[in-house]
C-alpha cells in the first residue's frame, strides 16, 4: 500500500507530497534541525565528503526543498548546483535563503518533477538527494531518471531515514519517532498529517541491502550503504559505469 500524507485526499502521492511541503515550508528548516537535534547538518556534511575526490563541476540536488543540501555541496567547489523540487513553497523559502547568503550565482532552484527531470542525458557529475527519495511516487522511475542524467563515471549520494536495529536504541527511537515527533511537528507546523506521514513513510521505505538491490537493478555500480547515528539514517552511494549510455 502506498503511504500518503493525507489519507482522505483523492490526489496522487505526488500531489499530496507537494501540498504537504507547501503547507510546512514556513517552519520546515526550524523543524528539521529541532527534531533531529541538529544532527541532520552533520549527516549532510558527511555525505558531501564522499564526493570530495570526484570531479563535481555540475551537481544536481533532487528534492532540494529549501536548498540545504545544495548549499552544503558548495564545499566541493562546483561551477553550479541545480536544485529541483515539486514544492513551490519550499523553493520560495530556498530562494530567500540563497539571496540572504548571496549564493544565487552558484545555486539555481527550479520547480520540477523528480521522476521527469527536464535535463539531457549524461549531464551531471553528481546527483545528490537528502530525505527525498522516500517521497517519490514511483521510486524506481525517479532513481532511473537520476541515473539517466548522471554522466558516465559520475556518482549518486542519497541520505534517507532508516530504522535502528540495536537494543535499546531501536525502542527509544521508535517511541520518539512515532509519539513525540508527530506531536512537536503538529504543534509547530500546524500540519499534523505531515509528521504522522514521516514515520509511516520511513517504515514503508526499502532500507539497507534492499535499497541497494534497487540501485543495482537500475544500473548503479559500486553501491554502498553507510549507517549514521546508530542507524537513524543511512547514506547510500553508487556510480554510473564509464561505458553506460
Produce the secondary structure layout.
Elements: H1 13-24, H2 28-35, H3 39-49, E1 58-62, H4 68-73, E2 80-85, H5 88-101, E3 107-111, E4 124-130, H6 139-149, E5 150-161, H7 169-189, H8 192-204, H9 209-218, E6 221-228, E7 233-239
Parallel strand pairs: 1-2, 1-4, 2-3, 4-5
Antiparallel strand pairs: 5-7, 6-7
Strand order of the largest sheet: 3-2-1-4-5-7-6
The fraction of residues in strands falls at: 15-25%
Q: How many angstroms separate the termini?
A: 33 Å
- In the CATH hierarchy, what is the superfamily? Vaccinia Virus protein VP39
Specify the number of helices: 9
Estimate the global geometry from the Cα principal axes: globular
CATH topology: Rossmann fold
> Under the CATH scheme, which architecture would be assigned?
3-Layer(aba) Sandwich
Query: Which H/E pattern describes the elements?
Result: HHHEHEHEEHEHHHEE
Number of domains: 1
Number of E-state strands: 7
Mean pLDDT: 94
Quaternary status: single chain
Amino acid at each position: 500500500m502506498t503511504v500518503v500524507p493525507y489519507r482522505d485526499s483523492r490526489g496522487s502521492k505526488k500531489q499530496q507530497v507537494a501540498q504537504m511541503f507547501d503547507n510546512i515550508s514556513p517552519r520546515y528548516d526550524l523543524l528539521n534541525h529541532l527534531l533531529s537535534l541538529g544532527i541532520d547538518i552533520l549527516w549532510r556534511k558527511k555525505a558531501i565528503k564522499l564526493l570530495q575526490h570526484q570531479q563535481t563541476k555540475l551537481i544536481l540536488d533532487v528534492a532540494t526543498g529549501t536548498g540545504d543540501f545544495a548549499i552544503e555541496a558548495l564545499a566541493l567547489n562546483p561551477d553550479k548546483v541545480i536544485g529541483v523540487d515539486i514544492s513551490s513553497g519550499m523553493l520560495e523559502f530556498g530562494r530567500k535563503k540563497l539571496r540572504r547568503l548571496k549564493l544565487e550565482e552558484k545555486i539555481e532552484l527550479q520547480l520540477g518533477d523528480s521522476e521527469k527531470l527536464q535535463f539531457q542525458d549524461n549531464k551531471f557529475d553528481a546527483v545528490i538527494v537528502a530525505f527525498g527519495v522516500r517521497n517519490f511516487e514511483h521510486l524506481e522511475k525517479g532513481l532511473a531518471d537520476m541515473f539517466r542524467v548522471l554522466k558516465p563515471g559520475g556518482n549518486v549520494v542519497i541520505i534517507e531515514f532508516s530504522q535502528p536495529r540495536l537494543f535499546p536504541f531501536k525502542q527509544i527511537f521508535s517511541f520518539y519517532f512515532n509519539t513525540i515527533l508527530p506531536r512537536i511537528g503538529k504543534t509547530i507546523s500546524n500540519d499534523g498529517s505531515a509528521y504522522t506521514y514521516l514515520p509511516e513513510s520511513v517504515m514503508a521505505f526499502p532500507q539497507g541491502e534492499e535499497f541497494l538491490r534497487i540501485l543495482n537493478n537500475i544500473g548503479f555500480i559500486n553501491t554502498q550503504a553507510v549507517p549514521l547515528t546508530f542507524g537513524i539514517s543511512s547514506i547510500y552511494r553508487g556510480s554510473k559505469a564509464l561505458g553506460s549510455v
